[in-house]
Amino acid sequence: MTICGAKMTKKVIVIHSYKGGTGKTAVAANLAVIYARQGYNVCLIDYDLRAPNLNVLFNVTPSKWFNDFLEGHCDIKATLVDVNSAYATKGRLALSLSDPAKTEEMIRMNEKLEMKALKRILKGKADLSSMGFDIIILDTAPGLHYSSANAMIASEGVAVILRPNRSDMVGTKELVRIVFGRLDHLRENIKIIVNNFVPKSETTYEEERKQLIEHISDFVGLPVIDVIRHYCELLRGTEEAIYASVFPEHPFVLALKYVADQLLR
Amino acid sequence: MLNAGVKEQAALLERAVSLLESIDRKLDLLSEFLRRNLESGSAESLKPIEAYDILTFPAHLQKTSVSLVELGEATADQIAAKTGRQRSIESLYLNELVQQGYARKRRKGRVVYFAVAKE
Question: Which of A7, B13, B16, B17 has its CA 20 to 30 A from that of A37?
Fold first, then answer.
């Protein structure tokens, strides 16, 4: 079920977090590659207009940006860059990227533009669905902005990335009060992914993990899909590599494969 | 006598026709009045539906309002086709949006169209 009713069958997944630096973009990019490798046609959209970075991660420069689409200068199709061959995917993997050169402009006109953007986002979703995309992933700006609210209204599911600390938990709980809890169509479809978990010891890892899931889901009021451990190599290599492509057997990728399955349920 | 009877009937008919014409004019006025009322919510006074408005809408209005934003202008039938709910229910919800100043409606023949503020 979507906010627009039962007719829509495509899945729009928003990757969101209360604070920046949670690993949101790494999760979004890796999920996109995982789904596309599984054979789904995936469109990954950088909807973080203030701090776009998927263009750096995928190392591509499109002729038209997602900003151009939002401003009504082109349709969503014109912004797509296919990266199937570079990531050896079975399904189509297309990117719609935000222009880092327009960050300042976006900050200045952001609110006005984003207030009008809901209709554009809904149109983009309908166009991408008719182009055969099965999954649309929206990497949003952290916190609460018009853009994140627009993305959630157009989505069928939200994955909230949360670091296991009190600041993220309190902030996410506030997002539940202000946004998540108010969107009726997302009632069962907002799920937490805990990222960067550092256990006290290897021997107590499983017990700590179990307690953490219970504690966070009770406190925030949302189900926790999975707890992903902290991997130092990810911090070193996030900007250079998408692990789902380069190290498909890495535990981070295996954890995200589980998350990918859960998000489609 | 006969002539007087015919004249009387002719006068009655004339009066009946005049009354019918008067009723017709009044019906036209009434219909115009109703049409203007149905088109309540001029473009100037219409509030745009934005993300934060949707967050404050009750659950039942969220689907209807998002569908109307997506279509721009639509009948209750078209909205019902998107939401999967009954036309009569959607008509009720669309009228609720009109009352709250988020949508306007206009009648074209027997069909009523609802619309949100233009960008």
Answer: A7
